[in-house]
Amino acid sequence: MPASDQGITHDRYMLVPRTLVFATRHNQVLLLEGAPDKRLWAGRYNGVGGHVERGEDVLQTARREFAEETGLELVDPWLCGVVTVDVGQDVGVGIFVFRGKCSTGDPKPSTEGTLAWVPFEQVGDLPLVEDLYVLLPRLLAMQPGDPPFAAQYSYNETGKLIIKM
Questions:
Q1: How many domains does the chain have?
Q2: pLDDT > 80? residue 103
Q3: N or C: which end of the chain has fewer CB within 10 A?
């Protein structure tokens, strides 16, 4: 099919693709505590990830972003879920959520924040990015071969995040 047949028109809803990666080691997950000067999520814990660049697929992006932000290699990553984020505009966000292993090495310092290996049972006690209180327990319970989940995020009139899974 030629590119002209893809049906891309500006009147259609579009998504900006991103990845979000959670690496595990034994019963720990690697989380990034946002640097105090970050515009978004300062002092909050999240996975690592970022925007899909032209010419990349989402798996390549997950591996690249993980290496750039941690200095470590992501091993055996698998797609755990896809989140569509409706921000109330013509363009939303599509997040491809991955999980993988990281068996050796210590994360490098980063301007993004501080990386820490957190035991699974302590994750809920941290100041997480808002959706992770719902997302992480589900993600950490998944096994390779489980079907990926689908989630839809939106915001109500007061700006409160609404999560549908």
A1: 1
A2: no
A3: N
